[in-house]
Amino acid sequence: MISPTNETIEARLGSELNMTCEVLLGSGEVAEFGKLAWKMNNTDIPEDMFRIKQGNKIDKKEAKHAVVSLRTLSISSIIEEDFQTTFECFAYNPRGKSYGFIKITPQYGKMFDAYVTYPRYVKEGALDNCNANHFALHTLPQTLEEKYGYKLFISGRDDLPGQAEVEVIEANIRNSRRLIIILAQKPLTSDQAYCGFEQQIGLYKALIQNEIKVILIELEKGDYLNHFPESIRHIIQRYGTIKWKPDRRSKLNSSYSRFWKQVRYKMPLKSKSSMSAVYNSQIKFKLNDRQLLGKEQT
């Protein structure tokens, strides 16, 4: 079973949700005789059920001389009952069976998909795309916000002047569904305590209160991770980091790289409506550009 892997996802009441069961069924006749089906609380999903439907067919794709089978499950509108339901995927072939499930928890109107904290520093000789400031303020939002429709609170960008730092940090972390910590070396002394406090609050919630999930991005190579506080080293050891590897050869495909796929996998699931809004805004932007270009040419 590739997915689901006994996981929990968040969703709002009334929102649409699409899930995919993906499993390696083998090759040859083993794959041909394989079966894949969704169930709810270990009960078959009625074919005439309107609100919840599984895909009519099982899609297949080749992967390293084997066959990966996929089947979707669509919920047109989340209701309270779904939060008490276990959505299970069962896979069978002549060699055995596999199983995975998804549980849905309510999403309580948090303002941000992720709170981003990073060591703000200036490093002489550093490449622009390896600089923590540039990555946090430009690279990250250009992909997560502009391409995929996530809403980020980025310290150093979204803070309002005159607000008490402690109150702002705590309130905005509480209003975020993820905490993204960008790990880089040699923070400025003036900012070290400030960023350290942000990380302390976020890690306290992740370790003790279990209110927020942490995404660790390792921006640079080196042994600097050993110099972080014990709480961060514990998270690194337990969950690992996502290593930033900029693709200098193809900027056009950078948003589809393995790095961004890993980040999006750990980010909250986006609803279909929000992704459509991003797509429509991009189309509108391109059309406006063409209209302006046409005026200039005339």
Automatic annotation (TrEMBL):
Keyword Ligase (UniProt): no
Gene Ontology cellular-component terms listed: membrane
Sorted UniProt keywords: Disulfide bond, Glycoprotein, Hydrolase, Immunoglobulin domain, Membrane, Receptor, Repeat, Signal, Transmembrane, Transmembrane helix
Start and end residues of each Ig-like domain: 4-105
One Gene Ontology MF term: hydrolase activity
Principal location class: membrane
Domain TIR: 110-267
InterPro entries listed in its UniProt record: Ig-like_dom (IPR007110), Ig-like_dom_sf (IPR036179), Ig-like_fold (IPR013783), IL-1_rcpt_fam (IPR015621), TIR_dom (IPR000157), Toll_tir_struct_dom_sf (IPR035897)
PROSITE patterns: IG_LIKE, TIR
Localization of this protein: Membrane
Topology in membrane: Single-pass type I membrane protein
GO annotation terms (biological process): signal transduction
Pfam families referenced in this protein's UniProt entry, alphabetically: TIR
Family statement: Belongs to the interleukin-1 receptor family.
Protein name: TIR domain-containing protein
Organism: Chiloscyllium punctatum
Lineage: Eukaryota, Metazoa, Chordata, Craniata, Vertebrata
